[in-house]
Amino acid sequence: MLDGAMGTELDAALPTQGSHDEGRIWGTRALYDAPQAVMEVHRRYLDAGCDVVTTNTWGLLGDLGLENQELVGAARPLHWMDAARRGIQLAREAIDEHGRRDDVALAFSLGAAAFDPDRQETLSLLVRAFADDRPDLVLVETLSLIREDVTFAAVETLLATGIPVWLSFRRCRLGVCGVHGQHWGGPEGDIFGRAAHRFEQMGVGALLINCLPPDHVPGMVSWLRDFTDLPLGVYPNLGYFTQAGWRSDADVGPEEFATTALGWREEGAQIIGGCCGVAPGHIAAAHAALSDTKPGPRRPAAMPSASSDPLTLAAPARPPSWRNDEGRVLYPLELPEIVCEPGVFVPTQGSFLVWKQLFKHHVGEGKRCLDIGCGAGILTVQLAINDASHVHAIDLDKAAVANTLANAF
Question: Structure pTM?
């Protein structure tokens, strides 16, 4: 069992702890301004039965760049390494007071900003901050995109510290997911699955998903299990952050949260906890419900629909189809919406003329096809729709390959 949301619990305990307009790191500032409150939140989650306590350091390397300036609102200049040590110290003291040092792990929390390109040197220095008291693991949270030139290099840097590394992504079966459950960019085929396999080969200790609504979790654990044997975890949110503070999206009580957690367990989740809005009461109920269970093999019956996106408006009624003399549908086309990501070759009039030839004459039916220079994949997809037995698409541009996979998916 992971713990829950430090930020939301601190917000409830310290409603006058400075303006949220001062930046998202005000919770990190509490390490100095309100250390007893931070320890009290740790104690509550320990009382609830969590086995992993995360430090209050998620915003440490955020977009305010703590490694280059003073901690906002602090009485004196503070180095980010000092804040890192402070976070470990308070969490460790809470664990020791609880008498559970032997059976509770301390996870050093880092936000996704830690994987920004200009943070690589900072990451390599983390081990110095851990010299006096090494955490049991480093947990990098709320990651989203898989960037070939950054993500894997950052993971290698963290693994070089010799401390176990857990990675957590904001992902659902429909692709990159937002805090409200909105989908960004559409499905990516198996890009995330192949990344999971690579993380395992690199030596990552566990892979999790977090900070997305609970109704976007089903199917994700079993989907990832096709790609990796890593321990898999789930800790979604029950709220979100606004300039006015933390707000709850759903009225989900502890018992309902525990029932939902049982579903994740039946699907194979080995690590379960909570993100924004998940209080000690939720964790306690889930701990009680899960205590005598084992990960199961259950799989969802069907792929979720993008229409489940709460920010997606109801689709208009489908217009009547137009057919040619042969009865073939000309409108609306079977072709899905083709997304062309920035930097990928944009289809030209020539591309559409070739596509029209494929469409009109049903080129590729029953054949093995090769699309050289696939770009966004408009021809690849049409060949597949034409019932080709196999379509292989290649491109010099890795972004184009990823884009074609997403569109073809």
Answer: 0.73
